[in-house]
Amino acid sequence: MLKVAPGTQSLIDLEDADPDVLHEHLPGSPVPFWRQIRSSISFVFDELDHQVRHVPAPPPKRGETVRELTRAFMPVRSDSAFAREAADVVYFVDGGTVLRDGARLRNWLVDDFARATQPEPILLQWRRLSRNLDLGPYGSAYSLASLSTRSAVYARALRRDPSAQVERLVDEFLRLLGSPFDESRVAEIKRAAVYHERVRPFLDDGFSRLMDRLRPRVVVMQSAAYGAWCSLIAIMKSRGITVAEPQHGWIGPTHAAYNFGRAAFSEHFRESFPDELLTFGPYWEEGLKFPGRLVTIGKPAIESAVTKARGRPPRREVLIVSSTTDPEEMNAFVRDLRARTDASRPIRFRPHPSERPVLEDRYGALRSLPGVEFDLALDVYESLSRAAVVIGIASTVLFEAKAFGCEVLVRESPSNDYYVGGLFGEPYGGPDAARAMAERINRLEDQTDVGDPGIERDTMWAPDSLGRFRSWVASRVNP
Q1: pLDDT of residue 308
Q2: Among 457, 461, 151, which residue's Cα sits nearest to residue 298?
Q3: Backbone phi, psi, residue 170, to 5°
Q4: Does 258 lie in the same domain as 380?
């Protein structure tokens, strides 16, 4: 069993204690404020526990802001305000889980499920819909970007200021947690929470009207468990809609979004959680403390990608997956590994998606290093189908690599016991890590097979994912 990080354990312990303050609502909110703020607190714990710093998104340029404001009040057909048709099933996503398939972009998280859903479902997306997005699986598709922008404009115009209530509750929560954060982090949490609460009533109102028009029976919602917009879940569940979250990445006992204490299992909190969590396989369900039903479905994207990869030429590449932890140390490691590894083996460095906007600042020094290339492919499975070796710290890619038959080497970090344990063997650490890894890589033969018998694929990646999903959605639409 993997260990639970101290920060996640602190959140669980507080919920087990179940003080009354966890159940307080802000005026007009359908959910306890603790649910809304918990994920922000957990992100800071994550940075401290695992010695990482989440890469912030670059601020929008002035021209982009003006353009977004203009579009928010223009009659654009893809605006969710124009959604009128009813649908049994709605897929509600962020819009970031996309990859390129020829000239089109497809959403690997839900598109395969949508193709298996009859009649044609509807797609809702936070981001604007790209012109290149493949909308073939859907009867209609709409963006909530304009609704979000309009809500922010209304909040500012009406000067709604919940800061006093928000700051009081944040201070009380952090006091109960032992005041673990410095002033700058506390200020960040409060600033984001105040903005969120200013906008929430207007977004809730627009979303309520949208649900009344669409009248779905099932909503498959990305990242529903995190809690940032849990008021939207309460709105859906009050209308009798089943809300399910499809697993999109690594989950385990230390992931704060999927592990909770006693308070979260009370009826008062349940309306803010998805009814069900659709997992990749039983492996990912072990040790979770989640106040919803766990349903094994699988991941159709990896099933089809592994099948497609069979019969390809022998693979020789080394793929290094970034963890965002320490760019300077990562640059040094890649240089050292390149110098010690057989020069005929290509090395590709894959930055974390959040690092791509700041790629040159963090890893520009690698661009001129002979024998090293950046791996910027949207589809990581295309990268894995070429890789003989995958190196990383804590990433879903390490687990996916085993399904492709790649040799997985794990670097030592404070995260090992929480994310990978001994699944991939002893981690490589210390000043000789690159040398030891290079020696092992140099002894490897080119990879010709797909799939590793050392991991039961039906435990980590359940088979027949589309068949499982069809049965699941049919039982929810026609109970």
Answers
A1: 86
A2: 461
A3: -60, -45
A4: no
Using one digit for the tens of pLDDT, what is the confidence trace for 333-364?
999 999 999 999 999 999 988 888 889 999 99
Identify the sign of the CA torsion 274, 280, 282, 284.
Answer: negative
Q: Which two tokens stand for residue 102?
A: 């020829």
Q: At what angle do helices 33-50 and 6-17 cross, to 10 degrees?
A: 150
Classify 245 as helix, strand or coil: strand
126 by Cβ neighbours in 10 Å (0-12 / 13-18 / 19+) ranks as middle
Contact 245, 225 (CB under 8 A): yes
Is the separation of the CB atoms in 254 and 418 below 8 Å? yes
Place of tokens 């966890």: 22
pLDDT value at position 452? Answer: 47
Q: 463 in a domain, yes or no? A: no
- List, for residues 109-134, the tens digit of each pLDDT value: 999 999 998 788 999 999 999 999 99
The reply to whether 6 falls in a domain is: no
CA distance 212 to 207: 9
Contacts of 307 (CB under 8 A, 6+ apart): none
pTM: 0.93
What pLDDT does 284 receive?
Answer: 95
Please check whether residues 41 and 147 belong to one and the same domain: yes
Indicate left, alpha or beta for 136 from its phi (over 0: left) and psi (-120 to 50: alpha). Answer: alpha
Examine the pLDDT at 453 and tell me if it is beyond 60.
no
Of the two residues 72 and 374, the one the predictor is more confident about is 374
Which residues constitute the domain of residue 148? 11-299+475-479
Task: Quote the mean pLDDT of the chain.
Answer: 92
Do 383 and 427 have their domain in common?
yes
- Same domain for 376 and 276, yes or no, is no
**Cis peptide bond N-terminal to 56, omega within 30:** no
